[in-house]
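Researcher: I'm preparing a figure for a lab meeting and need a structural model of a single chain. I don't have an experimental structure, so a prediction will have to do for now. The sequence is pasted below. Please return the structure as tokens so I can convert it later.
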Amino acid sequence: MGMDPTRLTGLSPDLEIVAISGMGGIGKTTLAKKAYAQLTIRYHFDILVWVTISQEFRGRNVLLEALHCISKQTDSVNEKEYNEMDESELAVLVKKNLKGRRYLLVVDDIWSRDVWDSIRGIFPNYNNGSRILLTTRKNEVAMYANTCSPHEMNLLNLENGWKLLCDKVFGPKHDHPPELEEIGKEIVEKCQGLPLTILVIVGHLSKVSRTLEGWKDVARTLSEIIVSHPDKCLGVLGLSYHHLPNRLKPCFLSMSSLLRLVY
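Model: Understood. Here is the structure written out token by token.
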């Protein structure tokens, strides 16, 4: 799951692109946030900028997000002036405040090559060791943006999924009742290695009694628990569904019906 931080702090002066790819809910944004928050990263770069794209790209919103990040780290940007500026003026302001500074830009949840071309035009190469870290569900976008191989996120195996659940429910010491381990691992297996699903279930487990019967009930009703949190799990996965070609959407719905029968 981890990513080599030297991919961001390497000595090359050229603007390098680091891409994190993987399906929705697999932990791309979480990994990017961990990198963004590392002290070594914060000391290495003069300016850190985070923009979120999602499926609808609005250039003005991206520029405003960038300027908001810049304004918190410098005194050179007056946010009150933004509403009076058009998109081209905002772009000039972004470039003016990044010029001469080594910056790290995180572009979270980018879906298309055209959008990447637009982003790349906003944040130029100043040959000072700046970096762009992007996350995307589409490997073709990662390959298009990145001259090197993207960091591909994988589903968690049973061991790592169980570790994640224990970390969140029982804390770093994993001090759990022994009788819960078997049913706990059964719950993890039903989550199919997707970290987002495990975290949704963790939130539910924190509200039920730590008893064998309580956890068995969670295992039995797991699909209903996931459906009851549309703002978390289904909201994220739903974006991938809506992005499917129309010919594939019925196939996806048929598979989901079969999974409900299984679980």
